[in-house]
Amino acid sequence: MKKFLIFLVLIGLNKSYSQNDYATINIYRPKMMLGSAITHTINLNGKKVCKMDNGGHLEYKMFTQANVYITIDGKEDIERKDGVKISVEKGKIYNIKIYPKFGKMGIEQIGNPIEKEDLKSKYYISLNDIGFDGNATNNEMPKTEWTKENLIKHWNENGISEIEGIYEVVGGKIKYELAVIKNNGTYSLIYLSGANGSSWNTGDIKATLKKTASFGMFMSNWYLLNKLQSKDVLITFKDSTFSVVSGESNDNDTYVKTYPTYESKVKKKE
Known about the structure:
- It contains two helices and 17 strands.
- The chain is mainly beta.
- The termini are far apart.
């Protein structure tokens, strides 16, 4: 019985780990009297990402990058020698502390997180390497009640048009699974899974498609991982795939249809 319980615990730990498709970097500035009135700038990989006040905490989720170089204030330059460089692994957490040091701010990697008592909750910031996540933005997302299961049931009962179905990204940094559904003559992309650890939920609308002069080619209102909307996205369907080409982001991917398969007996409709 004891071995069985241990086995269940190990399964639970493995499941929890697999759901984190990102690494987390916590950057802390514990409360101190020295220099408390000064706001400092956090640079990641040579780019300014935020400002940090006394008692601040930046939680930064890395979905797509493998390395990060962290510096404080000064020149936004990845060649600087006064920062901390980390090679990150998905599912792991890294803790960084910044602190006053001889008239400037020092930075070091630490083992344990800073206690909440040494921070100010109002200065908590949540970001990721594509943009703000759901804790930091107030974007109103269109939502539906669609799930993979009720979509398949719907198509089995009502038939399916040529480009409708379930698609998976091929080789993408985030393993999106999306559905194409037609409603009142308009196509939408529905998020099903893949953006683990983000604020995306099954049934959220990933994009709404606008017809062009060519069948299978659509302009779209596409929602990025950070749930900001990009209107400069072209989606093109061909055979059992569609491609996404964006002028504003790195969402340039190919998706392949996984349902219905060529053996499925779902009736076709216009």
